[in-house]
Amino acid sequence: MSKQKPSLPKGMRDFGPVEMARRNFIFTTIRDTFRLFGYEQLETPAMENLSTLTGKYGEEGDQLLFKVLNSGEFLKKVTDTAFKSGEGSVLPLLAEKGLRYDLTVPFARYVVMHQNEISFPFKRFQMQPVWRADRPQKGRYREFYQCDADVVGTDSLICEAEIIGMIKRVFAAFGLTDYRIHLNNRKILSGIAEVAGAAGKETELCVAIDKLDKIGQERVVDELRQQGFSPAALAALTPVLAHSERGNEEWLDFLREYLGNSALGTRGLDEIGEVLDFLSDLGEDTSFLKLDPVLARGLSYYTGAIFEVKVAGVGIGSVSGGGRYDNLTGVFGLPGISGVGFSFGVDRLYDVLDALGLFPEVQNEGTRVMLAHFGAEERKQAVRYLAAFRKAGITAEVYPDLAKIKKQFTYADKKNIPYVAILGTEELASDTLSLKNMGTGQQETLSLEKAISRLEG
Amino acid sequence: MSKQKPSLPKGMRDFGPVEMARRNFIFTTIRDTFRLFGYEQLETPAMENLSTLTGKYGEEGDQLLFKVLNSGEFLKKVTDTAFKSGEGSVLPLLAEKGLRYDLTVPFARYVVMHQNEISFPFKRFQMQPVWRADRPQKGRYREFYQCDADVVGTDSLICEAEIIGMIKRVFAAFGLTDYRIHLNNRKILSGIAEVAGAAGKETELCVAIDKLDKIGQERVVDELRQQGFSPAALAALTPVLAHSERGNEEWLDFLREYLGNSALGTRGLDEIGEVLDFLSDLGEDTSFLKLDPVLARGLSYYTGAIFEVKVAGVGIGSVSGGGRYDNLTGVFGLPGISGVGFSFGVDRLYDVLDALGLFPEVQNEGTRVMLAHFGAEERKQAVRYLAAFRKAGITAEVYPDLAKIKKQFTYADKKNIPYVAILGTEELASDTLSLKNMGTGQQETLSLEKAISRLEG
Lengths: 457, 457
Prior knowledge:
Two copies of one chain form a homodimer. The first copy, chain A, has 18 helices and 16 strands. The first copy, chain A, has 457 residues and is an alpha+beta fold. Chain A is globular. The relative contact order of chain A is 0.10. Chains A and B meet through helix 1, strand 1, strand 2, strand 3 and helix 5 of A and helix 1, strand 1, strand 2, strand 3 and helix 5 of B.
């Protein structure tokens, strides 16, 4: 065992006590909300068979999967010929397992494997880390948590309304008020393509439209032209692309007419209308909702509603998103499982709450009172008092060593402990303690019982 | 994407809603206890550099590490020569990272990397999965959780007493009453070797002694004889090996005399005495404590107290254990970091609580009331009521689809939902709901407000 300066692999992070308290505040808020809405927790293992993972995330995704070397004699199956023909031939012989890349594919696998036990509609949530061999950069890590909730086995649009309700509840608990939930429906995008006479070029249209925010209307039109959209099609698309000025009502009015000849587009509009009705039944105000007919994420996957949530004024991308799909498990041989789901991005939410100063003081999970002492007898008394504090549910610790009082206070200070209970000769003689508020500097001598009720209050 | 019947890698597990509720009950109890005692949470990444992990767990441990294939062109560095010389030469060229094998080595790495920010004594807890390429068998998995608490940077025996206090609190919360905390001290084991004139053969003595429970006194003596222990040494050891009859007081009396000439052994006894004193100051009864001078786990590591916890009547090995060490971080170039720590085995605790029927009913994290409906108008009303239930903090859901009432009840039944609120024509007309207790079958018609207060109660 040689001595070495240890380090972390790139893109990996430790979370110390302060970060953990903040992250736990985020996790607890999200978990409580999922539960309040009747979602049940699921956990799947970190490792899946590569056969489960590959081919599910596109070619780029396959590259970003972390593969786990077979244990034992991992070279046994690797022939000379395979070695000479390179990675593609060697990989299946070396590695049979990979690390979870997202929570959706493991969920789909779970549904297929447990289809006979699950009572549909199945409302599940999952909060676990995922791993991607992405190039690390600011805000992008190789290990990060996803928090997903999905309901499968129902087409009811109540689910869409409830997802919006969950996002609102979580953000309210965070104290986040300035955000927009962008809402679209894949059928509206399809309808737009239909109306513009570009029904076969829906993907190209959506890829270009998705960049509207970043590159602007003019360059989107350029791109569409290069993709072979006719002048007539581009003209037909103009009123859609010049979208930024419209409010929700305006959009609805405009689209009712624009999509009048598209049965699919009209169905998309009807679905949005139904979601809005359920939101009203739920008593949710909809001022935070932004109808966004050019929102085009997850196109290879989503077939109905599409969501995305953006927080104003922080320059951080979307912090939550999702949509409705109609074929979760077809790739595993179980067709017809439709559902709707969404995800919170914990790392981005952390950055948002940090930037806006929204981590509450109450997030402190740490010690509420530390017992300091001037000697062995006082420490003995401190240990006796300690048990009483904890019995009352007050997070408490005693400075374990016989040390100078200054050192004990430095420890309490560094650990952000709000109260120190001091035991000296006088306190020992009078069966009291001196309780110091570390924030105000105020100190008072109290009986144990008084101190406990002070700290409970 | 070919259709395939998905499966899990061997030794890996999914946890569905019922198991998750039970596991969360265990995690929450342990986490709350760690926090009450002033321990702060830490999380480290799943992947560590292999240089951090290898050489820390012995040769067998190195074999059991899961290695992660380098991303991208992983064969690039593998020369023909390396390939021909086999796994040992190829491994460092293929894989630079491995999966966390335990929580101790990542903790040591963290302490070294953050030594300038940490205020010692550092009380940290960590609850995360670890991975080992062990042969899977009943009760042994390739992914499992560890729950560790350690305090480093202090020699105070208050920490040992507090560990015992934490174990007691966790077990009390579980409703576990019939268990023993076995307590020993490495210095007592050393003292025994010294007294028997086998000071150089301490390891052999301890390895043999550790089997006393399994193979009995006679075969332990045989093994010691084979290891070259003289008849005199064996005779000197006899009163120790015939240990099963002694209570704590008897052991203490016996060892005071037996170890009288061993300074180290006597120090071990003094330490145990001091731990007992602190336990008494903490008000802990010590009837569950079993002084066990032949408890010999973690010998290459522990230098002071050694703990192990066994539950009676379940035939499951130790569910918790730990000890004091004096060199956590030496291998990373930071000497002199001493501490004491212990760990709960979540999977074994799960099996114990399951075997003893101790998972409480209150563990149910799921929906408390489901709203069922006889048609679209009734469902609309149900959605309105839903919001009110949730606002009162009652976990609630509505059956999302328009479906036969029987189907809705089957869903509630399968999901173990204790109450169903039924909305039909009559309820709609009278602004009420019929609340059915699914356990007793009782049903009553109530206003929304009454139903809420019924479910809150």
